[in-house]
Amino acid sequence: MSEKHLSSQFDSDLNSVSTQLMEMGGLVEIQIQKAIQALAQFSVPLAEEVMKAEDRVDMMEVAIDHALTAIIARRQPAARDLRLLLAISKITTNLERVGDEANKIARQVKSIVESSDARKMPIGDLRLASHLAVTLIRRALDAFARLDLDAVVSILKEDDQIDQEFKGFTRKLVTYMMEDPRTIGDSLNLLFLAKAIERIGDHAKNIAEFIIYIVKGTDVRHSSLAHVESIVH
């Protein structure tokens, strides 16, 4: 078999697994959007739709892992191709965890609606963080498709904004609970939701960092933003 034919087959394998990853990302993005919509509307039917999709996301993760294992065993890739395959594996894991967070939000929304007067809960303060989290996941997947490092730096900066929103929201909830102990139950429910949203932002950041690994061959996890920018530029 010619080297050109082997290369063509390998490219086809890479394209196939990348397509599977993007399909999984699209499903997870829909999950987040529906979970946030369920939260905004306190909609049990929407929450249940999110929960039903969990098994499908898990199956996609397993299928991608199997495909990656087969590619590595057959092609024995080197250098950047191997980095790409390893990064896809890590990104897949992060997407599955984003799906888990969306499922947690959906389950919590369902529990809140069924056990309390949900409309009294001040969920408006979660809207900005929710919007940022959904947007970051979408942009992280776009950045992966284009291997766009400038987009990666922008994503890392905006994840900091989600973290700041979460800290500010936590302080506000603590104030509510101190001023009126009757709000403790509702406040803890909101804190659980806020933490899930913050984690979605963290996973978008992780995906962005793996794009740098693919392109530059440098692991920037746990690095400062300044250090990341110096590597990218």
What are the low-pLDDT stretches, counting only 5+ consecutive residues below 50? 1-6
Major sheet: none
Tell me, rounded to a whole number, the average pLDDT. Answer: 87
Which CATH-level-2 architecture? Up-down Bundle
Q: What is the CA-atom radius of gyration, in angstroms?
A: 20 Å
Structural class: mainly alpha
Q: What is the CA–CA distance across the termini?
A: 41 Å
Report what the structure shows.
The protein has 233 residues and is mainly α. It has one domain (3-232): Methane Monooxygenase Hydroxylase, Chain G, domain 1 (Up-down Bundle). It has helices at residues 3-41, 44-52, 54-75, 79-115, 127-146, 149-179, 184-216, 225-232. The chain is globular, with a radius of gyration of 20 Å. Mean pLDDT is 87; it is low at 1-6.
Lay out the secondary structure:
Layout: H1 3-41, H2 44-52, H3 54-75, H4 79-115, H5 127-146, H6 149-179, H7 184-216, H8 225-232
Give a brief description:
The protein has 233 residues and is mainly α. The protein is built from 8 helices and no strands. The protein has a single domain (3-232), classed as Phosphate transport system protein phou homolog 2, domain 2 (Methane Monooxygenase Hydroxylase, Chain G, domain 1, Up-down Bundle), CATH 1.20.58.220.
Which terms summarize this structure?
233 residues; mainly alpha; Methane Monooxygenase Hydroxylase, Chain G, domain 1; 0% strand
